[in-house]
Amino acid sequence: MGEGDASAGGSGAGGDPQRLKRIAAAAYDYENDARWAGYWSNVLVPPHLAARPDVVDHFKRKFYQRYIDPALVVEPMSSMTSTQSNRPAARSSATPSSENTRARDSGSSTRSTGASQQQSAERSANSLWLDGRTIHFSINAWVLVVASLGILPILPNHISSKVYRLSLLGTICSSAYSLYSTYGKPRAWNMPAIQPWLQSIIVAKDFVHLMFSLMMFTSNVHFKIALLPVLCWALDHVARFLRRNFTRSSLYRKYLEDPCLWVETNNTALSLLCSNAEITLGFLMIISLFSSRRNIVQTFMYFHVSYTALNKCVTCTSNFWK
């Protein structure tokens, strides 16, 4: 009987596919996967939560579900935090004794004062953090509006040229701010400290956006198709910010929920559109070498920075048609 029960229990545990998938996700080598560094650098997590192991493990499972095994079921973060917060309360109220009750009553005033001070400190920290995120969102919303006007052939040439440069300038500010808020500055201004800092920044997606915008901003030739990736990047950031911070707003639920949901569900299609626009822009820059406004060094730098555009296009295409 004991051996039969053990074997039945072992077969039941091994037959749970989600349990095996969670074990495989936990054992996956994320540090040697270059996609994990780019994924984690673009996740908007509060600083006080980014250091928690359960939060990091949650996003590792999300990464594993997106890139390795789409069949993995990842529970929402809210249920995890609520479960963790309810466990100590249930454990403390299981068998209270009279001595613990008296001690709790005598120290209730002290704990309430400390809790109120802690809550006020957390509220002030969160307000400062939200201020930084709000600035980043405001820049991207401004880029979204300006790039939408600049990409349409409805403005005169002199205004269209200014809108083109303003859109790229806004993307430069947004990408630089995102890199600074994520990676900060080197610990010291010497080569041993600057080299790992640069290596961590170069693999980030915001660094590619920054270099792309800088090259297009300083170019002598203006291609309106360069605003298409800028528009998609700003649209993706604005949609993610609205879905995370304005879900309780009636204005958002009435007018913006469906567009934001569409952007999130069609993220692969938007990435494919950006990749195709970058490739088309590369061909246009090659053609511009035969004109009087050619810039050989800038064209070479564009292809050097945008080397991953073709690989990204192939990857997005394969994911799109799965």
Automatic annotation (TrEMBL):
Superkingdom as given in the UniProt entry: Eukaryota
Pfam families for the chain: TMEM33_Pom33
GO CC term, one of those recorded: endoplasmic reticulum
Low complexity bias locations: 85-98
Subcellular localization: Membrane
Coiled coil: none
InterPro entries, per database record: PER33/POM33_regulator (IPR051645), TMEM33/Pom33 (IPR005344)
Protein name stated in the entry: Transmembrane protein 33-like protein
Native organism: Dichanthelium oligosanthes
